Amino acid sequence: MLLKYPEKCYFDKMKTGIFYWFSYTVPIEERFRLIASAGFDNVILWWGDQFADIEGAKERLPDIARRAGLFVENIHTDFAHCNSIWKDNQEGESVFERYMENAGACEMQNIPAMVVHLTSGNEPPPANELGIDRLKRITAKAEKGGVIIALENLRKNEYLETVFAGINSPNLKLCYDSGHENCFTKKNDVLDRFGEKLFCVHLHDNDGTDDQHGIPGIGTIDWPALIGKLKQCSFKGSVTLEAYNDFPPEFKSYTAEKFLSEAYRAARKIADQLDGRAGQ
C-alpha cells in the first residue's frame, strides 16, 4: 500500500519540531502557543493517559496543537511494560492491544506515524516468534491506515536487527534518537546499520553518562559528524528535538520562553546545515 501522508513528512525547506513536554508545567493551550511562537513547525505528542488530570484526554491534543499552527508529526506511544510484547502473558496481550489501538488512533487523528519502544532496560526478554507475530499484526494494521511505525534505538539495538529482518514492510521504519546512542550504544552506529530505514528523529544531547535530554550542542555529541551521517541517509524529515531543561543544571532557571528560544536556535542551525542553507 502506498504511504498515506508522505507529503506531510517531507518538505522543500527543512522543518523543525519539538516534543510537546519540555519540562515546564504550562496549560496545554499555552504550551502549544509557546512552541509555535518560538518558531517550531511541528510537535510530537505523548500518547498515554498519565497526564489526563492535567491536560485532559490525549485525543483532544492534536486539534489543540493544530489550532496553534503546529503540524502533529507523530505520537510517542506509552512504553510502560513494553518488554511484555515478548512475553506470553496477559500483560503482553495488553501491550499488543495498546499498540494496535495507537495505530488506529493515528489513522483517525490523521497523524502520520507512531514511535515505538521494543524494549526497556538492560535485561529485556529474548526476542521471539510471539513478539515478532504481534509486531507483524500491528504493522499490518498500520499499513492499512497509511501509518508509519518508527522503532526507536535504545540500549539493545539487536532487537531492531531482529524485527527489521523479520518483518518486511514499507511502513516499518527507524526513529533515530541521538541521546540514546551517545549514552547507551556509543560503539553501535545506528545510522550506519539502519540508516536506510530512517524516518524521523529525536535529537538531544548529553555528557555520555546518562540520558539527559539536553539541547543539541551542550553535551558531547559530535554534531558535525552526526549531521554528515544524516545527510548520507538523505534525511529530509523534520529536525525534531526531545529536549528538557534538566541538563545542564543552570537551564532550570530559564523561563519557558527562553528555553524554547535556545532549543529552536539549535534545531534551526541543524536544519540549515542539513538543507544547505547554513550561512545564507
Fold and architecture overview:
By secondary structure, the protein is of the alpha/beta class. It has one domain (6-274): Alpha-Beta Barrel (TIM Barrel). The protein has helices spanning 28-38, 52-55, 61-67, 90-109, 129-145, 158-166, 178-184, 190-194, 223-232, 256-274; strands at residues 16-19, 42-47, 71-77, 113-116, 148-152, 172-177, 198-202, 239-241. Strands 7-6-5-4-3-2-1-8 form an eight-stranded parallel sheet. Strand 4, helix 5 and strand 5 form a beta-alpha-beta unit. The longest helix has 20 residues, at 90-109. It is globular and about 45 Å long. It starts with 15 loop residues before the first strand and ends in a 6-residue tail after the last helix. Residues 1-10 have low confidence and may be disordered.
SS elements, strand count: 8
Binned, the helix content reads 25-40%
CATH domain topology: TIM Barrel
Supply the CATH architecture. Alpha-Beta Barrel
**pLDDT < 50 runs, ≥5 residues:** 1-10
Q: In the CATH hierarchy, what is the superfamily?
A: Divalent-metal-dependent TIM barrel enzymes
Given the C-alpha coordinates, what overall shape results? globular
CA-to-CA gap between the ends? 39 Å
* Number of helical stretches of at least 4 residues: 10
